[in-house]
Amino acid sequence: EAQVTQNPRYLITVTGKKLTVTCSQNMNHEYMSWYRQDPGLGLRQIYYSMNVEVTDKGDVPEGYKVSRKEKRNFPLILESPSPNQTSLYFCASSLTEFYEQYFGPGTRLTVT
Amino acid sequence: QKEVEQNSGPLSVPEGAIASLNCTYSDRGSQSFFWYRQYSGKSPELIMFIYSNGDKEDGRFTAQLNKASQYVSLLIRDSQPSDSATYLCAVATGNQFYFGTGTSLTVIP
Predict the structure, then answer these.
(1) What count of Cα atoms within 13 Å lies in the side-chain half-sphere of residue A49?
(2) Residues 20 through 39 of chain B touching chain A, CB cutoff 8 Å
(3) Cα distance from A81 to chain B (closest Cα, Å)?
(4) B88 pLDDT exceeds 80?
(5) Residue B90 — very low, low, confident or very high, per pLDDT cuts 50/70/90?
(6) What is the rounded end-to-end Cα distance, in angstroms, of chain A?
(7) How far apart are CA A66 and CA A76, in angstroms?
(8) Which terminus, N or C, of chain A has the lesser number of Cβ atoms within 10 Å?
(9) Which of B103, B104, B94, B101 is nearest to B2 (CA)?
(10) Which residues of chain B are within 8 Å of residue A103 when distances are taken between CB atoms?
(11) CA distances from B103 to A57, B44, B64, B93 (A)
């Protein structure tokens, strides 16, 4: 089954404790990206990757890191999480930057 | 100015009616346009993808794109209660995707 998977689905952590949210797709897509979704602000792109070893900042990259060492995986790293990073996070992938994105199930992160 | 703007609603229509959702975008260089549906707490799912001017129909859904006026719309015919959700307009511009804040639709049985 073609899909984007994310783990964990729910995470409660404390300020400053490094965490990684994994994302994997099995569709051989070139383009992958991370979004956060907040009430009233909609989906905002954090980082995106157009191919292996190629990553770029989206609109809200501060406090996040990503890497793309393999085509299928695109982890999101929060080196020192803060409460303002409490949000619903989605990973997505698409064939290229022109085509529809397929979303993972989401990760609800709470930072206390 | 936001890249993509939508009326937040809420929009209510009776079952069987046509629901009309609108979206405007700011960058004339935008290449591809999408409508997603999102149920509360779930991930967005693609409804329509359009990239050339005019209409595109898929079942009860019709997307309309007017690049000169920089708007894209979605019509839902014969609306069903199961269509009640938030509808997100998205635009591919450069190498990025931009989403509107969504329009909440309620279909009243």
Answers:
(1) 26
(2) 31-32, 34
(3) 22
(4) yes
(5) very high
(6) 36
(7) 5
(8) N
(9) B101
(10) 43-45
(11) 27, 13, 17, 21
Mutation pick from A100, A103, A108 vs chain B, by most beta carbons of B within 10 Å, is A100
Q: Does A90 touch chain B (CB under 8 A)?
A: yes
Using a CB-CB distance cutoff of 8 angstroms, which residues of chain A are in contact with residue B25? none
Q: Which residue has the tokens 């591919």?
A: B92
Q: Which amino acid would we find at residue A97?
A: E
b or e along B19-53 (b: 16 or more beta carbons within 10 Å of the residue's beta carbon)?
bebebbbeeeebebbbbbbbeeeebbebbbbbeee
pLDDT at B84 over 80: yes
Residue B2's closest chain A neighbor by CA?
Answer: A41
SS3 assignment, position A53: coil
d(CA B20, CA A16): 45
Quote the tokens at residue A23.
Answer: 């994302």
Q: What is the pLDDT of residues A17-62, one digit of tens each?
A: 999 999 999 999 999 999 999 998 889 999 999 999 999 999 999 9
Q: How confident is the model at residue B1 (pLDDT cuts 50, 70, 90)?
A: low
Decide if A47 touches B, using CB distance below 8 A.
no
A103/B31 CB distance under 8 A = no
Taking the CB of residue A103, how many other CB atoms lie within 10 A of it? Answer: 22
